[in-house]
Amino acid sequence: MRIDRAALAICLFAVAAMLIAAPAVVAGEEDIPRTASGKPDLTGRYNIASSTPFERPSEFGDELFLTVEEAEEIMERTRAAVARSNAASDPERSAPPAGGDGSPGAAGAVGGYNSFWTDRGSDRFAIDGKFRTSILTDPPNGRMPSLSEAGKARRADLHPYAYENTGSAWWLETGDDPYDGPETLSVLDRCLYLGAAATPARPILYNNLKTITQTEDHVVILVEWMHWAKVVRLNAEHAPPEVRSLGGDPIGWWEGDTLVVETTNFLERPGVAREGLKVVERFTRQSADGLLYEFTVHDPDYTAPYGGEFLWPQTEELNYEYACHEGNYAMGNILRGARLLEREYLEQKGQAGSTGSGDE
Predict the structure, then answer these.
(1) What is the mean pLDDT of residues 63-85?
(2) Integer distance in angstroms from the first to the last C-alpha of the chain?
(3) Contact by Cβ (8 Å): 124, 132
(4) H or E segment at 221?
(5) Fewest CB atoms less than 10 Å from the CB: which of 8, 183, 184, 263?
(6) Count of CB atoms within 10 A of residue 181's CB?
């Protein structure tokens, strides 16, 4: 059979051009679930519980990694501690001393919780097969940067939010704000918002589940603790600076296969957020089993930005409603206790019939 060499050359040239123009396939990319438009599909439920500390223990210095042996030893100790805490309590035990016994841990020194009620996680995460000494990677020592002068001043102003309960209505004597009305209690006391669970996210005491729902225009991250929905508008502009909320204004965009989320416009709340706070998060689908989560925080309360990374493993666990606000019996009891102290104070002063602030 006679071959037309000119035609063959043209065919070979065309094939070569197609191969050059074709996008390179990243290793493992074919295993990543994708949407109809080709974007990585982040939809799913994730349990981010981990015993890896947020800040690096000082004994590790600038060392970012643990050896496999070190990680296994730490995880074994953690599991043993959890098992001890989960052991059956002595039914004949006495009540804890007033103010607690000074012991650390989830019990709050007064017997509030044992490990049964918590879900910190016992395992350490490994990225590229290497176990980490901390979630924070920047600064290089894995510890928070020092406070700025503004941060020091802000913390000095926080003391009125931690009044000591002396067992008397001392605020009626001094004229100070008792900080006991439903609108003046913190968003934590009212079970409304927990920044550490949302922006940036980190493993915390319990309720570490996140549920991601994704469309072409929005990504919604449902945070279990406080049942907070973080609605990310894609390819959008931030709201005007005067439009603020507890969780800020998150917008997002794709950089290749990574979803970048930038959150600004946080509502000024003592100990929660402040003007000038900006958080940048990056979500990268690693496989069908989880995400790599990276974050950088620009906070005027600190002398430098800080950031870190950890894994979000996918889970089949369900994200149930966290109805703490609706069932917040503790807040009502805080207010009732304050009214009782006011009544006792006024009775001692011969002024029974009025209870001061009148809340609850």
Answers:
(1) 94
(2) 99
(3) yes
(4) strand 218-223
(5) 183
(6) 14
Alpha-carbon distance of 146 to 50, in angstroms, equals 25
Strand positions, DSSP E, 10-135: 44-47, 65-66, 126-127, 130-132
Average pLDDT, the chain: 85
Flag whether pLDDT at 2 surpasses 70: no
Of the two residues 153 and 186, the one the predictor is more confident about is 153
Query: Across the beta sheet with 130-132, what order do the strands follow?
Result: 65-66, 130-132, 126-127
- Residue type for position 158: L
Categorize the per-residue pLDDT at 22 as very low, low, confident or very high, splitting at 50, 70 and 90. very low
- Please name the residue ranges forming H helices in 100-169: 149-156
Span 123-133, average pLDDT: 96
Q: What is the pTM of this model?
A: 0.84
Q: Evaluate if residue 228 carries a pLDDT over 80.
A: yes
Coil, strand or helix at 107? coil
Q: How far is 108 from 105, CA to CA, in rounded Å?
A: 6
Report the alpha-carbon distance of residue 62 to residue 64 in Å, rounded.
6
List CB contacts of 286: < 8 A, sequence separation 6 or more.
Answer: 28, 32, 292, 311
pLDDT at 86: 82
Kindly report whether the peptide bond that precedes residue 200 is cis, defined as omega within 30 degrees of 0.
Answer: yes
Quote the CA–CA distance of 346 and 355 in Å, as a whole number: 7
Domain ranges for the chain: 47-66+108-168+186-313
Distance of CA 195 to the CA centre of its chain: 6
By CB atoms closer than 10 A (0-12, 13-18, 19+), residue 192 is middle
Report whether 160 contacts 330 (CB < 8 A).
no
